């Protein structure tokens, strides 16, 4: 895994655009999960424990106005754009690995 830039726009308003960079793709995927968890905490401020399943996380991703990653390709020395579907697959693989441990 390599340097990854996350580009996110939560609504159709340009002001909702944000970005972050991560040393690894896994760190980026973990951050997306944390963004969703923070969203759930805002929606449910009185709940001490928040739980969710992967389908709810994927629905959240789909509802974002825009979400993509730019992943550095060492061979080509360029950043390759990655779609929401790619992000969801990477999150699935990350969570599956975490569940196996």
From TrEMBL:
Protein keywords: Cell cycle
Pfam families: ER
Protein origin, superkingdom: Eukaryota
InterPro entries per UniProt: EHR_sf, ERH
Family per similarity comment: Belongs to the E(R) family.
Physiological role: May have a role in the cell cycle.
Protein name: Enhancer of rudimentary homolog
Organism: Acrobeloides nanus
